[in-house]
């Protein structure tokens, strides 16, 4: 599914633990790290797609996480020219994403990478909240920053049982 402007609808997932650290996953067979993400199928709303992608990429189900929030609007990034498949129709020039922030509510031993039809990741680690901005591929950094700014603010809410220290500690460096 590509929209009329050439963007593929997609969801992004920031999964945090009680210490406010985030799940950072290594793409299978590459030295490339990212948050879980994936396309929205034609019959799905963003939340449904998020839970499907969460399961396919991490083996975690809805009962394993607490949904803390989502971005209000679509966040877009364009693909660099070399990644655009010029011969495909319709032409996809990038992705538009709704981002979600989740809290892990189960033991991390439930994480597994063999649930989807194609394994996306082969390793993962907990990292400080702002670390992904330094490590993600360059063309996704602006979208990551917007999503992390908007959703990280939820970690300092009184009703969220997550230690926001990781979020707050890097705020000055990236703010």
UniProtKB/TrEMBL annotation:
Keyword Hydrolase applies: yes
Cofactor (UniProt): Mg(2+); Mn(2+); a divalent metal cation
This enzyme's EC code(s): 3.6.1.-
Gene Ontology MF annotations: hydrolase activity
Superkingdom of origin organism: Bacteria
Ranges where the Nudix hydrolase domain occurs: 6-149
Chain ranges for the short sequence motif Nudix box as given in the UniProt record: 38-59
Keywords, in A-Z order: Hydrolase
Alphabetical list of PANTHER family matching this protein: M7GPPPN-MRNA HYDROLASE (PTHR23114:SF17)
Family as reported in the entry's similarity comment: Belongs to the Nudix hydrolase family. RppH subfamily.
Protein task: Accelerates the degradation of transcripts by removing pyrophosphate from the 5'-end of triphosphorylated RNA, leading to a more labile monophosphorylated state that can stimulate subsequent ribonuclease cleavage.
HAMAP family on file: Nudix_RppH
Protein name as annotated: RNA pyrophosphohydrolase
Lineage: Bacteria, Pseudomonadati, Pseudomonadota, Gammaproteobacteria, Methylococcales
Gene, per the UniProt record: rppH
């Amino acid at each position: 599914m590509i929209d009329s402007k050439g963007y593929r609808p997609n969801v992004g997932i920031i999964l945090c633990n009680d210490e406010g650290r985030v799940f950072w996953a290594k793409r299978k067979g590459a030295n490339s790290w990212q948050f879980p993400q994936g396309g929205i199928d034609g019959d799905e709303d963003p939340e449904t797609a998020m839970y499907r992608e969460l399961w396919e990429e991490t083996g975690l189900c809805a009962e394993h996480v607490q949904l803390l929030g989502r971005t209000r609007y679509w966040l877009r990034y364009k693909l660099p020219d070399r990644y655009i498949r010029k011969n495909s129709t319709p032409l996809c020039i990038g992705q538009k994403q709704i981002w979600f922030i989740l809290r892990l509510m189960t033991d991390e031993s439930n994480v597994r990478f063999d649930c989807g039809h194609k394994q996306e990741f082969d390793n993962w680690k907990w990292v400080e909240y702002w670390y992904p901005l330094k490590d993600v591929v360059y063309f996704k950094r602006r979208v990551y920053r917007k999503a992390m700014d908007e959703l990280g603010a939820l970690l300092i809410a009184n009703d969220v049982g997550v230690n926001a220290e990781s979020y707050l500690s890097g705020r000055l460096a990236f703010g």
